[in-house]
Design brief:
single chain; about 400 residues; mainly alpha; Serine Threonine Protein Phosphatase 5, Tetratricopeptide repeat; 434 Repressor (Amino-terminal Domain); 3 domains; 15 helices; STI1_HS-bd; Hsp70 protein binding
């Protein structure tokens, strides 16, 4: 059976199959749906398209909003980018050989590289993109220091919708020649296909500056609207960031001042003795006196109306102490107080070692026992009557 297709058509079919092998994603193009359906009808497998990894039209907000999220969600900063014409990013191919940069190139190798380049350009113009890439690769291996070879191979990769491969070649070309308008041109176009609008605009502007042509200008006009939106968004974001940093700095200063003032006030209070420490009414040593009276047994004893009345009577006139010497409750409390004060080294106020007679101070403010003054001198003893037996 003879082949119904002529040799020229077969050659083109071979080229098409080669393109499909190098970039299977093109089978998802609407124009090639018939071929994709045919392959699948035969049980063939078509790889799924990878998820888009370029910039998104609208920024995604996290469930818990941070400062950055607030900026992104600001109506003034919302981005509405036209992503028409963007393609899926390609994976870098290990077969994209970059040559030996340290190689010393002979004149003969340089001439052969030029011959390969001319042949590759011919194949590229005829649409034989994969053949052109292979020829450019051979030329690069002969002369890895030619910026033009990398830039032109990058152009070929761009025709296969392989922007990342193009960017890699053009970046290498610019490392060899920083003024390569061709490398800036095709790298800028590759960035545009990935949706990297700012980078695309930057490269295309540089290409126009070095060597203006109408195609570069057209591509630059295409990316400028999105690039301008992103630049304005970045400026707003930076402004809000600075405002937040300034607000936080002001808040830190305010908190530091408040903490300093609080510490100073606390230090001042610690230096000034309290009324309890200096004694009620400013009398030195009375702080210790009141501390001793906090004994639970003494507190309980003063809750007894009989004891309270007795000490009230004694505080009015310490000489009345003799009336209660036979009262076990009163004398038990007196004994308790005496032991407390003797243990503190203070001595029981109002009662000397002999008991009554030195004047008994009151207990002002003590629960259930109003005092009659603090540490006042004892009233003078009663004058003897005329019928006392005095010689």
């Amino acid at each position: 059976m003879s082949c119904p297709i002529n040799s020229e058509a077969i050659d083109k079919l071979k080229q098409f199959i080669q393109v499909c092998k190098s970039n299977p994603d093109i089978l998802h193009l609407p124009d090639l749906k018939f071929f994709k359906d045919y392959i699948q009808s035969l049980g063939g497998y078509i790889p799924e398209l990878p998820k888009m990894s370029g910039p998104k039209a609208e920024p995604k907000q996290e469930p818990e909003e941070s400062f950055e999220d607030n900026i992104e969600s600001d109506p003034e900063s919302d981005l509405e980018l036209d992503m028409t014409g963007c393609v899926e990013p390609d994976k870098l191919d290990d077969n994209q050989k970059m040559g030996d940069a340290s190689k010393e190139i002979t004149e003969e190798e340089s001439d052969k590289a030029d011959e390969k380049r001319i042949e590759a350009m011919s194949q590229l113009s005829e649409g034989n993109i994969q053949n052109a890439i292979e020829l450019f690769t051979e030329a690069i291996e002969l002369n890895p220091n030619s910026a033009l070879l990398f830039a032109k191979r990058g152009q070929a990769y761009l025709k296969l919708n392989k922007p990342n491969a193009c960017i890699r070649d053009c970046t290498r070309a610019l490392e060899l020649n920083c003024d390569s308008a061709t490398a800036y041109k095709f790298r800028g176009r590759a960035y545009r296909l990935l949706g990297e609008w700012e980078l695309a605009a930057k490269d295309l502007r540089q290409a126009c500056t070095i060597d203006f042509d109408e195609q570069i200008d057209e591509w630059l006009k295409e990316v400028t609207p999105n690039a301008k939106k992103i630049e304005e968004h970045s400026l707003k974001k930076e402004r809000k960031k600075k405002e937040k940093e300034e607000t936080e700095r002001f808040e830190r200063v305010r908190r530091a001042r408040e903490a300093h003032a609080e510490a100073a006030a606390k230090h001042k209070d610690e230096e000034m003795p309290s009324a309890t420490e200096s004694g009620a009414g400013g009398v030195p040593g009375m702080g210790d006196f009141y501390k001793l009276l906090q004994d639970p047994e003494i507190m309980t004893a003063f809750q007894d109306p009989e004891v309270a009345a007795a000490f009230q009577d004694i505080s009015t006139n310490p000489a009345n102490f003799v009336k209660y010497q036979s009262n076990p409750k009163v004398m038990a409390l007196v004994s308790k107080l005496s032991s407390k004060f003797s243990g503190s080294g203070m001595g029981f106020p109002g009662f000397g070692e002999a008991g009554a007679g030195a004047g008994f101070p009151g207990f002002p403010g003590f629960p259930g026992f109003p005092g009659a003054g603090m540490g006042g001198a004892a009233p003078p003893p009663p004058k003897p009557s005329e019928d006392d037996n005095l010689d």
